[in-house]
Write the structure tokens for this entry.
Amino acid sequence: MSLPSAAELREDTIAGRRSTTETVRQAIVRAHEVHAGRDGLNIFAWSDDDDARAHAVAASDALRDGNGGGLAGVPVAIKDNIATTTLPTTCGSRILEGYVSPYEATVVTKLRESGAIPFGKTNMDEFAMGSSTEHSAYGPTRNPIAPDRVPGGSSGGSAAAVAAGIVRVALGSETGGSVRQPAAFCGVVGVKATYGRVSRYGLVAFASSLDHVGVFGATVDDAARGLRVVAGHDPRDSTSVDSPVPDFHRAGERPLAGLVIGRPLEYFPESLDGRIRALCDAALQRMRGLGAEVRDVSLPNTALAIPVYYIVAPAEASANLSRFDGVRYGRRVVGDGLRGMYEATRSGGFGAEVTRRILLGTYVLSAGYYDAYYRKAQRVRTLIADDFTRVFNSGVDVLFTPTTPTTAFPIGAISDPFEMYMSDIFTATANLAGVPAMSQPIGRLDGLPVGGQFMARHFDEMTMFRAAYGLERSLGAEAQA
Ligand code: GLN
């Protein structure tokens, strides 16, 4: 039996009809049923039934003290790059093996304060670099819908935890699409808010100007409620914005009539799989039927997003990851002298993809190349952001696009890093521009989920959710058919 929705869990828990320990027991049973462990779907990098039970007791104590927040009694799985103090935080990496953070991420504190129950640390591509959760030091995660396929990445474990019915809400992180892309591959909802809306304090940095904490939900409402709880100003994150957080879960109360939806032609190229295009156009047709207006628009610099992303992200990563040196965190490998220790620790601790990014980032930031690559990439990044401003200023409220160019691919099928990078072709733009974006299921191809993406103006998550609720309601069971 799967868990009731976040709203139902909350209501029943607060009314005293359901205990948090019973809820957690069900989640544990479900995790065993679907073989979430290492030799099965491998959804969790770290999990501990006793830890989950202890959090359930703490949540019920908080409730008794009158703290019945937005996720009261709701178990939430947490990506392994978000700091927790009772389970390890290892970013799917060998280099952080055994590391338990002395402090907690703000988003986790907010979860606990709302009465939510932290439930395990989910598997991920090492340091969130990847699109398949195959680059984890702890082995690949399998897609619960089709276990021979990847769940997407880098937050593949969190997407899989929701798709497998273990939890209704999970936290992930996004730098270029790592919540939306796995949400699309696993047939769940994935959202990242405006840059600055959710605190990054305690999220292990990959590329700070692009990083976001994101939220997965089994439905739009689960995701909206999850985001409502973790969003908000945090003085401990200097990029966090002090702006009131609306009730995202009420966005569905407004109908779609009058909404202007942009269909950007660059996200529907000739080369796009005709069946994915057809599912997107069918979704747009439904929204038209609900009274929305659909306009063709253009974001001309879209094709530059992947090249720009793969300069900016590795550049920032090479700086951020310098702290993993065998002295300050995690594992140390003894070598010949201090330099030998650094070399042995870093070569033994980082996997191939992370090493590739550090080399690339160091190269584009080096003296002779800084202007040619990094500075130029930053300029083009501005052009990409300007594209969004222009369309939104022209009266378009939300954009609708496919989330990914393909459905989930078989484990081991993509060995060329560049081909893997193309998974984010429709998602990286929102991170570069900092606009809110989300993916939700819009149908299936050969049994595999397809995601549709909404993007909106900075801090206008409400309009994005309004569109998402409307589409979800209209699609009904067809979203998963
Ligand atoms: N797949 C992209 C990458 O490998 C995005 C990852 C992410 O969003 N964290 O960098």
Summary: The mean pLDDT is 96. Residues 370-393 form the longest helix (24 residues). The chain is about 40% helix and 15% strand.
